[in-house]
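User: Modeling request: complex.
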Amino acid sequence: MGSKRTARRRFLKEGAALAGLAVGVPSASGQTLGSVRAERPTDLTVARSLMAYGERARFVKTSRFVYEDAWDLHTDPNGKDAHTVLDQQLGIITPAPLHYIQSHGNPPPDIDPTQHRLMIHGMVDRPLVFTMDELMRFPAVSRIHYIECIGNAPNPRAKTLEAMHGMISCSEWNGVLLSVLLKEAGVRSGASWIMAEGADATKHGKSVPMGKVMQDVLVAYGQNGEPVRPHQGYPLRLVVPGFEGKYHVKWLRGIKVVDQPYMTYWEQSSYIKGENHQGAYSPAQGPKSVITFPSAGQRLPSRGFYTVKGFAWSGGGAVRRVEVSTDGGRTWNDAHLPEQPLRIALTRFEFPWTWNGGEAVLQSRCTDDVGRVQPSAADHARFWGSHKAPHGNPIQPWRVTNEGHVLNAL
Ligand SMILES: Nc1nc2c(c(=O)[nH]1)N[C@H]1C(S)=C(S)[C@@H](COP(=O)(O)O)O[C@H]1N2
Ligand SMILES: [Mo]
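Assistant: Request completed. Predicted assembly structure:
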């Protein structure tokens, strides 16, 4: 923990230098600092709807990133897969309207919650069908967890943070533990898997091992304090903490208790190559981190002090340590973790850095509380070869040029 204290001391010292700079700088126009009140017409209809459900400040324009060709490929305006913009996220919770979307180009089904049912069947003593109201009568839990797509990975050809790292988001999920529902149904001996099925056009299905199911799998109807958004699976989605995105079945309508994995469409096509079945039934994702500031696509305005910021996470538990290197990996120092890391959730890290105006390569490395360390791109590639890795978690280096442009250094 000694190195952590050193990092904090350095942070305070260099941070204080920055504060010293800012004080005494007069505002350019000579006006008082503070807010300027803009005149807004008071339209009662607008006012009423704003009181009923708020909207963000009109100056805030943060939006999800959608690949240009997605607009050509899919004609349904609701059927776009989209990335979140991690460098715009303040804190560990992703606002639901900015949560990444991966529905393979399909629009969310329009589900009336009063008509929706969750069926539990297969190797159970009592097959059960639940309405939403019935599900809500069970004791609920709220858990902060990230969800990340298997395709979220550094890529030498990509140019921006959101292109490579935009398929991860973190929410507070609220719902019933699946173990509670399975106890109601009575799991028969010999049952070792479940097969979860969604109500979308492709009937997305995923097998989940029973050990994981009984541990912490959630049937969620709430996301960040309100019902799960349509793109995220309204009215019901499975949350399988720390397992890759595909496990988190949206628009959940069926749980079949079985004695083997089911090899659904989404468990074979493009997920199994050669002898490698890891991609199909991958366990908890490894430790991962990425610097979000400065990151590819951004530009540093001038030399001087900056707070390097980023997120770390692990499917295996809590983040224990994040190190940052600002010299291309020659030396590493402990980053500061401002908050107590949560299990299987985004964790913020910060690192004080003074840019001297020269070329620099910045990168971060995460260690989780089961002792796993985020691999370098070379080690990751050596281990997985040409197979689809169950987690694209290699270290992401960013190169700062003499002009302050930040580029992908892979
Ligand atoms: N029913 C259904 N569930 C699904 C999918 C889908 O297409 N249909 N996509 C999966 C994939 S590949 C991922 S990465 C996550 C994405 O969740 P999100 O769209 O809420 O970010 O949902 C998973 N659950
Ligand atoms: Mo995914």
